[in-house]
């Protein structure tokens, strides 16, 4: 049974106390894993590229003070229906060492391209590549948010809110499809149960929705899902900013709001920018010269709407991007459609 206990803290991020977990499954003792190189560092510790038998895997190592994130990630990965193309593939967990030297390992699939954030820093993307990334990312978020009834293949899956959605937590596979990762702050919504003792102001400041920055969250399932969708709008902006479909040269990669608040904003900086001034990342006019990009601009703006109830769902974002991608064969090199074309009409295949 899923239940939450009293509030605890790790690294000043509110979270929940652990409760007993079943042993890792399948439980084979410690796996013969060789750590090869550190690929990323975050508030939780480090992610390593590692060798497990003949496979390359990722090992996320949590120090003891971040054990709760490790516990939460397992709970999410072990839910029914989480073995999904656009969710990072889970392999297992291990505890290594004892007492204060203990480390908590999360073993997952390894993706050489790394996070979307790091990829966009080093690469520009074509219209086709951008659609591929955006559609698969939205599909992963849609699956996470979805409540799935018990069926022949698997049990009941409750809705899950990510609560730290950002381009660093979207990983790219070799075929440039995306998968969602990092569930250390995620919330599970069991029907008929309150979401438990939780704290609204978690996540990464830069990606916090206005209602999170204000501390004015309605603690319902839909409210938490809409917070994820605000962040999704910002990630779509990051993608568009590095897309070659825009007119003119593609600018260097910037984080959302980097122009407005720099690289290390305080909570107060974000509150002033997003809540009081109601600013959003700048959507350039050169993006609106491309018929597909202009539709994506509309989508991102509807995701980051100040009114949480007006935001798009992940399934709506996925369907919109998929539609634009299917329209692509009818686009000229400059992205213009023949006169009189209805861009909302389903293309004939």
Outline the structure in words.
With 349 residues, the chain is of the alpha+beta class. It has two domains: 7-109, Phosphorylase Kinase, domain 1 (2-Layer Sandwich); 116-330, Transferase(Phosphotransferase) domain 1 (Transferase(Phosphotransferase), domain 1), CATH 1.10.510. The chain is built from nine helices and eleven strands. The protein has helices at 67-77, 116-122, 127-145, 210-214, 221-241, 258-261, 267-276, 291-303, 314-327, and strands spanning 7-10, 13-16, 33-42, 45-52, 55-63, 90-96, 103-109, 159-161, 170-172, 178-180, 187-189. The strands form four sheets. It has a five-stranded antiparallel sheet, covered by helices on one side. β4 and β5 form a beta hairpin. It is globular. The N and C termini lie far apart (47 Å).
* Average of per-residue pLDDT values: 87
As residue ranges, the low-confidence spans are 1-28, 329-339
Strand order of the largest sheet: 3-4-5-7-6
| Envelope shape | globular
Assess the beta-strand content as a share of residues. Answer: 15-25%
CATH superfamily of the largest domain, by name, is Transferase(Phosphotransferase) domain 1
Alpha-beta content class: alpha+beta
CATH architecture of the largest domain: Orthogonal Bundle
Q: What is the rounded Rg?
A: 21 Å
Helix content: 25-40%
Biggest sheet: strands, sense, closure?
5 strands, antiparallel
Number of domains: 2
Count of separate DSSP helical elements: 9
Organism: Timema monikensis
GO molecular function, one term: activin receptor activity
Subcellular location: Membrane
Domain Protein kinase: 33-323
């Amino acid at each position: 049974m899923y239940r939450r206990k009293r509030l605890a803290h790790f690294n000043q991020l509110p979270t929940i106390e652990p409760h007993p977990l079943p042993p890792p499954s399948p439980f084979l003792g410690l796996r013969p894993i060789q750590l090869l190189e550190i690929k990323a560092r975050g508030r939780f510790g480090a992610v390593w590229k590692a060798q497990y038998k003949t496979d390359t895997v990722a090992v996320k190592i949590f120090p003891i003070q971040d054990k709760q994130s490790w516990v939460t990630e397992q709970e999410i990965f072990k839910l029914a229906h989480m073995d999904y193309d656009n969710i990072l593939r889970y392999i297992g967990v291990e505890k290594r060492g004892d007492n204060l030297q203990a480390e908590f390992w999360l073993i997952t699939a390894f993706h050489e391209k790394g996070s979307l954030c790091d990829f966009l820093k080093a690469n520009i993307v074509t219209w086709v590549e951008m659609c591929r990334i955006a559609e698969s990312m939205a599909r992963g978020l849609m699956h996470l948010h979805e409540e799935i009834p018990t069926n022949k293949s698997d049990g009941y899956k409750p809705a899950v809110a990510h609560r730290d959605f950002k381009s660093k937590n979207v990983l790219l596979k070799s075929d440039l499809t995306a998968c969602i990762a990092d569930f250390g702050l995620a919330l599970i919504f069991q029907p008929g149960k309150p979401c438990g003792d939780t704290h609204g102001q978690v996540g990464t400041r830069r990606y916090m929705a206005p209602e999170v920055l204000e501390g004015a969250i309605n603690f319902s399932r839909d409210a938490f899902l809409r917070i994820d969708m605000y962040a999704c709008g910002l990630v779509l902006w990051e993608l568009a900013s590095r897309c070659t479909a825009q007119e003119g040269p593609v600018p260097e990669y910037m984080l959302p709001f980097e122009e407005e608040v720099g690289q290390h904003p305080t909570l107060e900086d974000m509150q002033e920018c997003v809540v009081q001034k109601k600013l959003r990342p700048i959507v350039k006019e050169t993006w609106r010269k491309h018929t597909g990009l202009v539709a994506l601009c509309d989508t991102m703006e509807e995701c980051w709407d100040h009114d949480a109830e007006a935001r798009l769902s992940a399934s709506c974002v996925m369907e919109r991007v998929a539609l634009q991608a299917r329209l692509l064969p009818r686009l000229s090199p400059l992205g213009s459609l023949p006169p009189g074309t209805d861009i909302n009409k389903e293309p004939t295949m």
